[in-house]
Amino acid sequence: MTYxxxxxxxxxxxxxxxxxxxxxxxVARRLKVSPLLIGLILVGFGTSTPELVTxxxxxxxxxxxxxxxxxxxxxxxNILLVLGVAALLNPVQVKGKSFKRDATFLALSxxxxxxxxxxxxxxxxxxxxxxxxxIFYILYSYKTEKEIPNDKEKPAPLINSLIxxxxxxxxxxxxxxxxxxSSVTLARAWGISEAVIGLTIVAIGTSLxxxxxxxxxxxxxxxxxxxxxxxxxxxxxxxxxxxxxxLFMPVQIPTGMWLDMGIMTAVTVLMIAIAFGYKKYxxxxxxxxxxxxxxxxxxxxxxx
Length: 304
Known about the structure:
81% of the residues lie in helices and 3% in strands. It is an all-alpha fold. The chain has one domain (36-149, 191-300): A middle domain of Talin 1 (Up-down Bundle). The protein is globular and about 50 Å long.
């Protein structure tokens, strides 16, 4: 039964990713905005739902360390793992004009997260500021990104595209949960330690929707969706997830989280610097990102 759930999880994950990419691109065409913007808002936010649920539950149960660690770890995984895999499959081109805006806000959202954490706690007032900052970013992005699509293909009806996108999001989320749960069950049965399970299967599990979406986007050569997915997810994680969580209950920042926040900031700066310097993420860059992520996981596991 566990193996059946594992296969079902994989099936839903990649079918959902396929529907999510095709649906979101169709929504972009219908709304006359770029797929990058849809990747930032619709895909990025939708695939970050597991992180939001995890953070809310963790804070409610009084284990804020999991809430903050979940966001920081997910942001690192999105850049090194998700973008790394997408670039390895198909080099990701960076569009300068829109990226300058998004990179600036990504940097600001990272600074806001680190700055808020310096107080030792993210209270309700800071939560309001973080959520308001995200809303401003969405509205500003829509205003500056609105454009006429370059392709001549007739867009599908908006409602159909939205339904396909939402079903795709649901499929990827359910598929990710089935895959993680069945993998944990098998790992325990094989005698793998809880620490290793937590650092690998569970840590990567919340990034599976983004990973599946980016793989499908790379295969279909919609790398603007994959790229927007990563940036959108990280901005959403930094501002909305912890911001919304703080509105329900103040989030305590664990003292041992600063190293991971430093790594998150460093890889964010690295991603932005490569984009500005080379205008793309090549296969070599993707491979380097994956190597860095493997080193990070090994460090967390005490292997190095």
